[in-house]
What does this fold into?
Amino acid sequence: MSSSYHASTVDWLGSWIAAGQVKPGQTIKVEADLGEQLGVSRTVIREAIKTLVAKGMLEVGPKVGTRVLPVRRWNLFDPQVVGWLSRNGLPENFVDDLLDLRRTIEPMAVRWACERATLEQIEAVQLAYNALERAVDSGTDYNRADQSFHECILAASHNQFIEQMVPALGALLAVSFEVSAADPDELRRTLPIHKDMADAIAARDSARGVWACMTLIDNADLAIKRFYPKVMADRKAS
It folds into this structure.
């Protein structure tokens, strides 16, 4: 079986389900129908369904067939699942829960980074901040630079659970940044707070670092509440 067929079929099915084309509790088409629609074999469909079962999106049983599960059962720490959801507009409660998650994890990660970061990691955080500053000045991919900055800090926490969560948290952070960045003034306004956080880690000043982190998240919360409806409307229009 071609891995490219498998990957593209998983992506199509995952995005199709995340877009709400099939509601939770409903069954999806039989393998033959889906295979004909997508131009792939039953084997490819069957393997793609297994992948989505592993991601918590589907369940398969002799009596229920292939059924879509509620979003709360999906693996929301899977970057691919988050990507499919974000393509079609996240529900507002998902964004609120995401901010709650950031408030739970990021301030402690900053505190531990202040206490535990190696000299190389402190330098990496500073370099990531410099890239962020250049992105704001040039108007280039600010979101990617912002995500990289936060990922450097998470890695510097030296907590193996947080380190394993970096890929998933990175995908979730990307969603948060995309929404809050809808306000162009927000980018420049929060740049000094990012610098405070980077400098606090370099100075081993955990109180200053945690304060800067919480301030950033609170600002993101306000920006999202102001601009989220516009972001979703623009996405649906396109």
Summary: The domain at 3-73 is CATH 1.10.10.10 (Arc Repressor Mutant, subunit A). The chain has a mean pLDDT of 86. The CA atoms of residues 183 and 235 lie 15 Å apart.
